[in-house]
Recover the amino acids of this structure.
């Protein structure tokens, strides 16, 4: 080609890694459907006071255990005659808070511990990772119940107990990814340029290890939702009369033979949110694997 033709040729900008990941996620129909469902649930929980719903705390023994489709009560009523639609939407607030906040806190703490352990290595790595291994001796469910039982019932204590459960898991993933990145050329170049350990971890390494850790943490939200509901079901989480999906399952278990469809609604919400977060995490993992 002549010089004139080369100058006239349009310059195409190469698509970046994250732009490619975002494009692949948008093309994944399953991930987009799950994201849409989660957005609707989050929006309804956030905008609950402005949706014109009934009072989730006001009940009446006259209208208790109404069936789904009853006029003015599209999802029926619970064992105390309270509107199930209102309690499910308002209950989403507490359920999502207790299910997501522990993962966020564990993500911050576990990523920091794993990054330091993976980069520094040596005795510090041994001290951090062996401490983490102690928590793996206990199943997640039993560990959460034991910590919640020791701290006492309550929303804050449930969040603390679940955070302690998830920190070791995220720390192990963070340390593994950091160890694989520690000896790469760009890290060696940063060391040669005189950058300190904190600068290397914060500027050069964090962006390269954050993606896999974030995907793993997203998958933990589904586990956290189930564990949070289990703690409330056992009386170690939210206290009555607060609407929360796990606590609603506990209070409605006696009505399962009278009105099983209404009694199953909180479990359906827990299942829907958990499976959506799980499928969305799988979609993100596939989208980030550019080589495949």
């Amino acid at each position: 080609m002549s010089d004139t033709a080369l100058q006239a040729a349009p310059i195409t900008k190469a698509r970046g890694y994250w732009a490619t990941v975002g494009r692949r996620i948008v093309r994944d129909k399953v991930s987009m459907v799950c994201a849409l469902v989660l957005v609707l649930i989050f929006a309804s929980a956030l905008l609950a006071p402005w949706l014109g719903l009934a009072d989730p705390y006001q009940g009446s023994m006259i209208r208790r255990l109404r069936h789904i489709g009853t006029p003015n009560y599209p999802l029926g009523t619970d064992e105390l005659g309270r509107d199930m639609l209102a309690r499910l939407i308002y209950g989403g607030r507490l359920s999502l808070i207790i299910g997501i906040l522990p993962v966020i806190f564990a993500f911050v703490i576990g990523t920091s511990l794993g990054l330091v352990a993976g980069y520094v290595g040596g005795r510090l790595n041994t001290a951090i990772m062996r401490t983490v291994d102690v928590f793996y001796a206990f199943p997640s469910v039993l560990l959460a119940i034991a910590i919640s039982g020791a701290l006492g019932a309550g929303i804050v204590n449930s969040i603390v107990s679940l955070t302690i459960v998830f920190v070791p898991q995220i720390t192990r993933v963070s340390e593994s990814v950091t160890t694989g990145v520690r000896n790469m050329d760009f890290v060696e170049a940063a060391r040669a340029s005189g950058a300190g350990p904190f600068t290397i971890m914060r500027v050069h390494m964090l962006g390269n290890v954050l993606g896999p850790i974030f995907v793993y943490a997203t998958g933990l939200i589904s586990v956290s939702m189930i564990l949070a509901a289990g703690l409330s079901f056992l009386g170690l989480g939210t206290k009555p009369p607060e609407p929360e999906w796990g606590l609603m399952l506990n209070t409605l278990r006696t009505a399962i033979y009278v009105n099983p469809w209404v009694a199953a609604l909180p479990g359906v919400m827990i299942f829907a949110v958990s499976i959506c977060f799980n499928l969305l995490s799988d979609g993100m993992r596939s989208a980030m694997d550019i080589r495949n």
User: Anything to note?
Assistant: Residues 68 and 134 are 48 Å apart (CA to CA). The chain has one domain: 17-288.
